[in-house]
């Protein structure tokens, strides 16, 4: 974690902000309430295992996630495709009349609303991406095992 360093009068002239790095392990040693609340070994649980164990744990969870993603994706694609097929058959049979002008107007209206909302949500999405990237960097061994397992789960 980085904390902003107090600025002196001479620092106000420079435009770059300086940060100092705080070591949480040293902070935890100095503050006993932290140890009472989280325990003495309160680091990431995965780091306590060997590299091979971390890769296997990431691989197994990745494979499970990939396998479920594949099955749910197939089910969703089948449902959506079947719905379109039935709608097309009903349209050709004369059961359904589609007002394409109204559909086009509604789609354009939805596009405009999505663009407005996307511009407002950009900071939150950027923050989420930055946090995810930092998590992956800190847990690179488990993350690489997860990605490999996920791809295997998709393929099986």
UniProtKB/TrEMBL annotation:
It is found in: Mitochondrion outer membrane. It is a multi-pass membrane protein. Keywords: Autophagy, Membrane, Mitochondrion, Mitochondrion outer membrane, Transmembrane, Transmembrane helix. One of its GO terms (biological process) is autophagy of mitochondrion. It comes from the Eukaryota. GO terms for cellular component: mitochondrial outer membrane. The keyword Mitochondrion applies. Belongs to the FUN14 family. This is FUN14 domain containing 1. It comes from Taeniopygia guttata (Zebra finch).
């Amino acid at each position: 974690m980085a904390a902003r360093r107090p600025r002196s009068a001479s620092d106000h002239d420079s435009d770059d902000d300086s940060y100092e790095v705080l070591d949480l392990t040293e902070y935890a040693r100095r503050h006993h309430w932290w140890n009472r609340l989280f325990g003495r070994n309160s680091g990431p649980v995965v780091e306590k295992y060997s590299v091979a164990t971390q890769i296997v744990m990431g691989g197994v969870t990745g494979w499970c996630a990939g396998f479920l993603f594949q099955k749910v994706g197939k089910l969703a694609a089948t449902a959506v495709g079947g719905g379109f097929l039935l709608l097309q058959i009903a349209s050709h049979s004369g059961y359904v009349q589609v007002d394409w002008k109204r559909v086009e107007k509604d789609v354009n209206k939805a596009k405009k609303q999505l663009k407005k909302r996307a511009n407002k949500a950009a900071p939150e999405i950027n923050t989420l991406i930055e946090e995810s990237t930092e998590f992956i960097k800190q847990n690179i061994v488990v993350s690489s095992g997860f990605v490999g397992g996920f791809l295997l789960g998709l393929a099986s």
